Amino acid sequence: MTHALRLTALAAALGALAAAALATAPASAQADRFVLPAGFASEPGSRDYTRLLQSVQIASKPGAAGAGRLTATGPLGSHAGDDSCRWANDGECDEPGTGTGACDAGTDYSDCWRIITGLEDDSCQWANDNECDEPGIGTGACTQGTDLTDCGVMTGLRFRNDTCSSAFDGVCDEPEIGTGRCPVRSDRADCAGRERPLTINDHFFGRDDRMLMDTGVFPWSVIGRITFETGSQCTASLVAPNVLATAAHCVSDGGRIRAAGQFVTGDDLPGGPRRARVVDVLLDSGWDEEQFSAGDDLDGTDWALLRIDAPLGDELGYLHPLALVDTRGEARARQVELRQAGYSWDTGNNLSGNASCRILAAVNDNTMSHDCDTTRGDSGSPFMIEEDGRWHVVAVDSNFRSNPDGPMIYIAARADRFAPLVDEFAQGLIGQGGLRPRGPGKPGALEPVKSE
Questions:
Q1: Which of 8, 13, 125, 227 is 20 to 30 Å from the Cα of 393, by its Cα?
Q2: Using CA atoms, how far apart are residues 413 and 248, in angstroms rounded to an integer?
């Protein structure tokens, strides 16, 4: 079953869920139609499913009238509750202790009862297809506890992360099982081990080899988070005193380019993090959000340059874009040792990355595959090499491709296309001409500028 087919079923299920909620709601509430978040079509592309599951929220879904609280009893005990949690029926358990803790105990019954009672099963529509479909550890196409066989040992990683400030240091710092210096379930790599099944829906190739980076030291100091006014967040890095490099899909939303936002460096710099606002954007002439989401043809256009309103690079330094493959060829490029770092979803405010990884293949469409351990939140993060004391960025993190015979194939957009454009963009000679709102009657969408 392909991700595209799953998304069709998922969209249908969400529509049915919304219809059911409206059917039981008062007439006044029925006047409000259920709509997907901005940026999602009725049949979203194959890379939208994670955002869809994380973004669609049913404001309230009380139990059916007269039905009372539902109860299930299993080997681990009984569980009673209803679905009054704001995030009920999103596939992820949000009750405290067992789930995320985002809701009160007993209010996310449908998402939690299998886990709490130990009655997990294979009732997922796509069970036994050799792909874990639970949220967080898999595709997110099914409810937690319903894809038991495919998820297997990965279920022990549910709700765990590496947000502990001393994660990846080899010492378990969780309470009861470790030193207790960090919150429960926040030191996953040190307490649960670094081994990861190849089928996990994260970019780990059998083992999570990441480490935390000191953001007070170059080059990690020039890598930061870019938070856009749309609410999305990605990783970006300084590639000139006043220019950032990130991924195009980070600034593309619903067919429009929405690049306005704020860049913030890490917390470890003397005097605290540095900040700057985005004032202009430059994209590949071939970028098309819809076509990118639907397939692999435009992966090489998934880069964006952002000009900022403060020359932070004059103080902090910056990475030098390098067209590695175009200038040296694929064979030599594959021999180079890569470093990578980004603000992963599972490491909180910590910059995590790879001290040593490689290019696996380079393709003529300006992409490369790699074996660096990256995950959600790393989009736009730099792949770097160091030569003679000078740090270069050779690509930015983009997306993944399915691989039935092994781990996912992880793709980066090479710097070969944007490297020649940085200087002119920094001077304001090319670009969109600013991100200020346009006057009445003028089109609001920005058009990509030619990169040839």
A1: 227
A2: 10
